Amino acid sequence: NVAEIPGILGSSAAITLSQGIRRVLRAYPDIKMVTVRPGEYDRQKSFKAAQDILTVNKAGELDAILCASEDAAMAALEAVKSAGRNELLGWIFSVDASIEVLEACERGDIAQVSEEPPYFGMITFEYAIQYLNGADIPAIIPLPQRSFFADTPESKAKLGGVIKMGKDLGITFAPAAAGGFDVFAIPKDMRDKFYPKPYWD
Description:
Elements: E1 2-5, H1 12-25, E2 33-36, H2 43-56, E3 64-67, H3 70-82, E4 92-95, H4 99-107, E5 112-114, H5 120-132, E6 147-149, H6 153-169, H7 188-194
Parallel strand pairs: 1-2, 1-3, 3-4, 4-5
Antiparallel strand pairs: 5-6
Helix pairs in contact: 2-3, 4-6
């Protein structure tokens, strides 16, 4: 049994993320979405949403919490600890890759973090400049993303390096320069299973 803390209901980001979750869950009928409480990408609202989820789903009735942002994940973690629901530690999943949430992943409090970095603007402007200078650019430009976890010695060591570089640079999100795109790549068989053709098609 899983619960979801989505973002702003009705927004395109919240819709597509929830659609992606349900696309995967359809392949696993034993996993059931039992509660949805929006957090609106706000830490206080997400904390209240997590409290509601924990109230509705008593100990032993919930196995994981899926969060639409690092604020939701950190709020869910705080609510789980405040409620003494230690059975859910390590069963919180997050989107975004702030250094704060990556540290929680490294500690084992959060299971996995799907990267959604704020670096898209730089790439957009680079291609816009090329276009304005007369270059042909592709219609679709896929962005490399990582799915962070720390459940093997290799992934934990690499995650520690990503966190260190982010702190050394004084930035909020996982730096692309830290690499790990091989270690933290979504396995090809999983990508092919759920997206047999590129997602933009």
